[in-house]
Amino acid sequence: MSATVKLYSLNLSNVRTYLFAALFIIGNMLFPQLAHFIPGGGLMLLPIYFFTLIGAYKYGLHVGILTAVLSPMVNSLLFGMPVLAVVPAIMFKSIILAVAAALAA
């Protein structure tokens, strides 16, 4: 028995691109909040990148980049994590991971 995974490459003119990006951004907002309840969970799980990787792998580069750019900004503005000073670095790492995940798919 073999299992297949459907991968998509959504473009920027597709409404689903923004819908999936919004869902992954919400995931990237909630998952870190939950991970920080575990002692050392933030460092161990790297939760800010989790849904970026999934979005980029499953739905393509555009969803991954939107999630990578907007997740750290929204998290910082709403929750103060990450600290505004490190948002550009986290965004840069997130974009690199999104590109790598999209290419790996």
Kindly describe this structure:
This protein is mostly helical and 105 residues long. It contains 5 helices and no strands. The protein has helices at residues 15-35, 41-45, 47-59, 61-79, 87-104. Helix 1 runs antiparallel to helix 3, helix 3 runs antiparallel to helix 4 and helix 4 packs antiparallel against helix 5 (87-104).
Task: Provide the residue-averaged pLDDT.
Answer: 90
Q: Span between N and C termini?
A: 21 Å
Q: What is the helix/strand order?
A: HHHHH
Low-confidence segments: none
* Helix coverage percent: over 70%
The structure class reads: mainly alpha
What is the general shape?
Answer: globular
Outline of the structure:
Helices cover 72% and strands 0% of the residues. With 105 residues, the chain is an all-alpha fold.
Outline the secondary-structure elements.
Layout: H1 15-35, H2 41-45, H3 47-59, H4 61-79, H5 87-104
Please name the defining characteristics of this protein:
globular, mainly alpha, 105 residues, 0% strand
